[in-house]
Write a structure and sequence with these properties.
Blueprint lengths: L6 E4 L5 E3 L5 E3 L26 E6 L2 E8 L4 H10 L4 H16 L6 E5 L1 H9 L29 H6 L11
Antiparallel strand pairs: 1-4, 2-3, 4-5, 5-6
Helix pairs in contact: 1-2
């Protein structure tokens, strides 16, 4: 029986993470604000920037995660550009957000607890698969739903999704 309770609040995550091919991706999500002390490095050394992202951990298990969002449209556009999103695509996909931020969005953020993880810890279960309704296998197959499954071409077309054959290049 567990007798110790160790809680931890983790901060100072990196804003970006490198991929295997050298590209940059966001560590939490692309709307996470850079740490105010690191804004000066956003253009010159973006990989040095920390994020206003935080996790709550109990006995080594993440209980929840959250972040403070970007409220400055210029900072948001810079982050998008550093993630490889060209200005035209930024406008097409996120123009509504950039316009709203330009109108003066207040500081805001969020935090979400993982109730499935808390249920696992309370039950003393060794795995999340023991406490969730439709667990996936370690190979990411969903046995109850039979997923992954073939999706009819009409359903893909309705969602503007194309399935491409993987090339051996």
């Amino acid at each position: 029986m567990l007798t110790e309770h160790a809680f931890c609040w983790i901060v100072d995550f990196p804003l970006f993470e490198p991929t295997e091919n050298g590209e940059r991706i966001f560590a939490h999500h692309p709307f996470t604000s850079p740490h105010p002390e690191d804004l000066a490095y956003l253009e010159s050394d973006p990989d040095r920037c920390r994020a206003l992202h935080y996790d709550a951990v109990y006995n080594g298990n993440e209980l929840g995660s959250g972040s403070i969002r970007i409220t400055d449209p210029a900072v948001q556009q810079t982050v998008f550009r550093l993630l490889g999103i060209p200005a035209e695509e930024q406008e097409r996909r996120f123009g509504f957000l950039l316009e709203a931020l330009g109108s003066g969005a207040p500081p805001h953020g969020g935090f979400a607890l993982g109730f499935d993880r808390m249920a696992m810890l309370i039950a003393g279960a060794p795995s999340l698969r023991d406490v969730i309704a439709f667990p996936k296998t370690t190979a990411a197959r969903a046995l109850f739903e039979g997923a992954p499954v073939h999706v009819p071409p009409a359903d893909l077309a309705e969602l503007h999704i194309a399935v491409l054959e993987e090339s051996n290049a």
